[in-house]
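JOB MANIFEST
job_type = single_chain_structure
chain_count = 1
residues = 188
[input]
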Amino acid sequence: MSLHDINRRAILAKVRAERAAAEEKDARKLTEKALADAYAENGVEKCAVSLPGVGKVATVTLKAGAVETQVDEDALLATVEEHQPDEVEDVADLQVLADPEVLAWLREHRPDLVTRRVRPVWRAAKVKEAEANGGRILANAKTGEEVTIAKVVQHDPTGAFQINFVPDGRYLVETAEQPARDDTADGA
């Protein structure tokens, strides 16, 4: 194969790849809208894809919508201060070091620079608990008291999806999409 032929092959492959990428982008956009509409109208979450003469080659599955947890920081802090006070800490503005002596001095002389917060690890655990329990956390294990500290919103799916090919599905698609080859066309 000559250098010219190799370069021509690279150029043709690049053009085909760019065209395929643009085609996939358009197909994904169309599919996302169609899946989002199908979910909204009929609750459709996935669709099997078959090709003529080949059968099922893949499943297009709607990805779940994002989960957004809107924490009521005041409710979380009040609950943890009351029931797990060791998990609440004093913090100063970002410019101030978290040195205990500095914090003690600030609490005494400049309380306006000190705020309280739930320790980050404890906060993450409580937010995770709230997310799993509709915004509520167990405030007191002995009494079973629960407190709402967050609003959990489950968003509708956007239409984003994933494709899961069956075994050999990619090969089957390529085979089905190739034009029929006519060996007699060259006069042989």
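[summary]
The chain is about 45% helix and 25% strand.
The radius of gyration is 30 Å.
exit_status = 0
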